[in-house]
Write a structure and sequence with these properties.
Elements (H helix, E strand, L loop, with lengths): L1 H34 L2 H6 L5 H17 L6 H26 L4
């Protein structure tokens, strides 16, 4: 019986770490989006700053409302954050700083 409790405890710990990582990434993305110029988003043919702030705000809200289990809504929040960090953020940074070469 002790092995079952250890596995459940380990699974819970892993889920907590994943949730904290997702929460941290979403907060980082939201702060990044807040600090950018509005015209940088449209200059790289992405959604407007307002739309990205709304998407990331909802993602943060979903993660905060469902902290225990990473369910479907949490995964939607994680995907939205991932899209921002992998696609939008690099292009917005590049348009504001110029090419890195």
């Amino acid at each position: 019986m002790g092995d079952v409790n250890t596995v459940n405890g380990l699974t819970g710990l892993i889920m907590l770490v994943l949730w904290l990582a997702a929460l941290g990434a979403t907060i980082f993305a939201l702060i990044h989006a807040v600090r950018q110029r509005p015209d940088a988003f449209t200059a790289v043919d992405k959604q407007t700053k307002t739309i990205w702030l709304a998407i990331l705000g909802v993602a943060l809200l979903l993660l905060l409302l469902f902290p225990a289990g990473l369910g479907l809504l949490s995964f939607i929040a994680i995907i939205a954050t991932g899209v921002y960090l992998a696609d939008v953020r690099p292009k917005v940074d590049e348009i504001q700083r110029g090419p890195r070469w």
